[in-house]
Amino acid sequence: MASSLPTAEALAATPPAPEAGPPIEAPDPAAQKPQRVTLGLLMIVAALALFSLQDVLVKGLSDSYPVHEVVFVRSLIAVWPMIFLSWVLDGGRSMQLSRPFWQSVRSLIMVVSFTTYYLAFASLSLAQATVLFFTAPLFITLIPWVLGTAEVGWRRLAGILVGLLGVVVMIRPDAHIPLVPALFALTAAVSYAIAQTMTSWLGKTESATSMSLTFMFANMVIGGLMLLVFGDGWALAYVPDSLTFLLRPWVWPTREHLYLLVAIGLFAVVGFLLLFQAYRLAPSHVAAPMEYALLIYNMLWSYFYFGEVLDHWTLIGTSLIVGSGLFMLYRETARGEPLVRRLFKPRRLR
């Protein structure tokens, strides 16, 4: 999740695109120079390494803190650098809201996406949760077709079906993957795709900074409400184990864990700074496939740090999901204008 994510980031240029980052400037004509493209790709690799570390820390804290406390602190840490950068770069103009209602709706959908993505961590391996979230590019393509706002040819429909077949292979009845956490990861992917579809519409009048800040404040508001209603953990006695990470009581973090929570927020800010800049330096259709590096990172962490071994069926499902996502990107590029460019055309913010 992106996760965070991300993920749909492979087709949506900015993972949780508008979560953090400086205003996006008009593309530099020199950005197509090979050395700048290379620098942009290196920035993406570095950003995804930070996002991967963030995922590792969130999973590591899932036995001690509720997910909304982790996300609350993450946003509380990340929001101040965002506000500072906005004031330094444009005097705070990029924080202005033109459509606050729809910004709020989008932010709440993003909160659902991130929360369910992190909930999946508690019961799935890091690799499994990430792979299932990488179905988001399929839904980004499918949703406009379902709504009747875009045409999808048979090739892309076939690619979507292949990706969904990969999901079936991973969570088939005889698999060792718990069904409810797997559905959490898929819910994260679908809600992320819906939010990114809204972003393509809101991005015509709203800045990336304002969408980032709205999302962060939404995280803090929802976290505060969860503290007031469920903060003492009373609901744990009435829910299955899969919801423990959601409804665990709030606790004051130890000094070591406080450092980790601060690191999660800082990783988010620095990662998105790198990612936004990377998409200014490298063309979207070149940069987007690099975001699958997040899956590689998380699979390595999953095996070497958490000792989680993927069976051959999970690897087959992973191959189908990743392959279909890359095919979606290829088809969009072949049609003349990549989906990532249509969704997030670089623009000078007011």
Account of the 3D structure:
This protein has one domain. It has helices at 9-12, 34-61, 67-90, 100-121, 126-133, 136-146, 154-170, 179-202, 208-230, 244-247, 255-281, 284-287, 293-304, 312-334, 339-343. The protein has 15 helices and no strands. The protein is mainly α. Helix content is 67%, strand content 0%. Helix 5 (126-133) packs antiparallel against helix 13.
Topology:
Elements: H1 9-12, H2 34-61, H3 67-90, H4 100-121, H5 126-133, H6 136-146, H7 154-170, H8 179-202, H9 208-230, H10 244-247, H11 255-281, H12 284-287, H13 293-304, H14 312-334, H15 339-343
Question: Could you give a quick summary of the protein structure above?
Answer:
With 350 residues, the protein is mostly helical. It contains 15 helices and no strands.
Strand content: under 5%
Quaternary organisation: single chain
Shape: globular
For the CA atoms, what is the radius of gyration? 19 Å
Q: Compute the number of structural domains.
A: 1
Structural class: mainly alpha
Helix fraction bin = 55-70%
User: What's the total number of strands?
Assistant: 0
Number of helices: 15
Q: How would a textbook summarize the main sheet?
A: none
Poorly predicted parts: 2-31, 336-350
Secondary-structure element order, N to C: HHHHHHHHHHHHHHH
Mean pLDDT figure? 81
Through-space gap between termini: 28 Å
Summarize this structure as a short list of keywords or feature phrases.
disordered C terminus; mainly alpha; 350 residues; disordered N terminus
